Amino acid sequence: MPERVIRRRAVAGDGVVRLILASVPLGERLSGRSRDTRPNPAVNMRAGDWLGSMEQKFLRYEASVPNGRGHHPGIFALANGLANDGRLSAQDWASWRSANDHYNGAYADPSTLDRSVYDREINPSAQSWFKRTATHLLAGVEFYTDLLSRYDVGWRVLYSNDPGRVLYEDDVQIVVAPR
User: Fold this and answer.
1) Is residue 145 a contact partner of residue 23, using CB atoms and an 8 Å limit?
2) Could you read off the pLDDT of 102-159 as tens digits, one per residue?
3) Residue 118 CB-half CA count within 13 A
4) Which of 33, 35, 105, 126 has the fewest Cβ atoms within 10 angstroms?
5) At what angle are helices 141-150 and 75-84 packed, to 10 degrees?
6) Sheet strands side by side (includes 16-25)
7) What DSSP line would sit under 65-111, residue for residue?
8) What kind and span of H or E run contains 128?
9) Taking the domains of the chain in order of start, what are their residue ranges?
10) 75-84 and 90-106 are packed helices; what angle lies between their axes, rounded to 10 degrees?
């Protein structure tokens, strides 16, 4: 019997279409409410609903629940947290290190080009979003989602054409201050 299932749900609101592909333990339900406790107009996904998410320009993989600051860390931060806390097996740590090295070499870290982008005093809620056209980077994300699922760290995928005020942009990503 599988220990985890992937729940799919589309949530529209605040200009972001959230196609949530969340890894959750069996028996646990995804909340039908947003973090501000207002009901979301959520619907169950059907095969045709995938087409709407394909039209969105940007996507973000993040924690399915907010952290202590009320933010949803991205999947790289979540995986880094597992590694930094010593929670990964030796094999998973080696695979994580290799994957991180690949991504570090594959595209620019916005904070090395503009330190203010992720400065918590200036942009406390900054989020990175992949451009849908960054297929060479998106291809490796499954490693991170699998790793997080194996260590019971919930994650989800969000899609949007306008996720917030753009703080940084390059050919594969944007960093935004969410609206």
Assistant:
1) yes
2) 999 999 999 999 999 999 999 999 999 999 999 999 999 999 999 999 999 999 999 9
3) 11
4) 105
5) 50
6) 42-44, 4-13, 16-25, 155-160, 58-63, 127-131, 173-178, 164-169
7) S--TTS---BHHHHHHHHHHTT-S-HHHHHHHHHHHHHHHHHS--HH
8) strand 127-131
9) 4-102+127-162
10) 140
